[in-house]
Amino acid sequence: MRRAAAVTFPRGLNTVRARAESCLKCITALRAGKEILSRILTRGEVRARRVDPRGIAYDRISGALGTLMGRVAGKVALVTGSARGIGAACARALAHEGASVWVSDILDSEGAKVAREIGGNARYVHLDVADERQWIGVMDGIVREAGRLDVLVNNAGVTGFDRPDGPQDPEHASLESWRRVHAVNAEGTFLGCKHAIGVMKRPIGGRPRGGSIINISSRSGVVGIAGAAAYAASKAAIRNHTKSVALYCAQHAMGIRCNSIHPGSILTPMWDHMLGEGAAREEAIAQVAASVPLGRMGTPQDVAHLVVFLASDESAYMTGSELTLDGGILAGWEAQPGGR
Ligand SMILES: NC(=O)c1ccc[n+]([C@@H]2O[C@H](COP(=O)([O-])OP(=O)(O)OC[C@H]3O[C@@H](n4cnc5c(N)ncnc54)[C@H](O)[C@@H]3O)[C@@H](O)[C@H]2O)c1
After folding, report:
1. Of 69, 89, 108, which residue constitutes the final position of a domain?
2. Element (H or E) spanning 198, and its range?
3. DSSP annotation of 212
4. 85 lines ligand 1 (CB under 6 A)
5. Residue 104 alpha carbon to ligand 1 centre in Å
6. 239 and 279, same domain (yes or no)
7. CB–CB of 4/50 below 8 Å?
8. Is 58 a catalytic site residue?
9. Strands 151-154 and 203-204: what pairing?
10. Which of 40, 81, 235, 270 sees the fewest Cβ atoms within 10 Å?
11. What separation in Å is there between the alpha carbon of 85 and the centre of ligand 1?
């Protein structure tokens, strides 16, 4: 057992605020690798006993904290490409569940607006994920101001359709556009993992600090797309690199987990180029929805729920996993007897 943390429990924790403050002290002590005194409430009275931070009592305390303060309370998270779409939903959900969130993007005014809307526990920072110097600067800033990074969501991504970059099929795509898509999707994720490992592996209180890296790949990281070859190849690179990162961090007992999410057909601005406008857009959305087994396009919040789970200690035994989130698209092939 390590030394007990200086956690004091006021008598009569009968307000939500007092309980929340008490829980926050507990979790801060646990994260610092200290033994703590757990609190047991009986008619507002507090009794204390010693517990192992890694033991069952930890679950009770984080469970209590979860109820009062959120599932990722006290964690520091960075979400790339979070000025809109899936990234913005992830930033909002993580903040809602108690994390301090760094919203980042190349769309500065939109990103700053998302951070303002979230409020006190969010801030915006410019980060072009394809630029290693910017990664180094942002990580230095987070360490300087927050002292730690617990969660990285490598979300920023481009399809190749977002610019007039020409065709994206394997025969006609230009090398330049292939490289641009890979620079953001694959290299951006590589750089994020590399620099997050450097920060997350630093020990605290003699134990590895650890963290959770969540890479947003795509259903296209599992199957090909004839008309978006660079996008699909770069997303497959993310899927595989996730497993290398997971194994490397496990081998070195860093306490860092790394998992990939594979969304499909999530209605975000990424689809604007493909859906058109007005009535045509509504019709196009209906057509996409009809091709999804669950009969609808996904929402950014659908992805954010899974991101919160992977960011939280609820997924402590998961690393190197690939999780599809596509309304059932990848579950099978539609040309089948009895298909709809
Ligand atoms: N929407 C879907 O159906 C879907 C499906 C599978 C995977 N994804 C993936 O989810 C992620 C988010 O997509 P979305 O649908 O929210 O798209 P989106 O276009 O709405 O958002 C992408 C964000 O990434 C930012 N970005 C682009 N280049 C960047 C760079 N170099 N550095 C930092 N930020 C950059 C954009 O400015 C934007 O804010 C992407 O990686 C995408 O490939 C989306």
Report:
1. 69
2. helix 188-200
3. E
4. yes
5. 12
6. yes
7. yes
8. no
9. unpaired
10. 40
11. 7
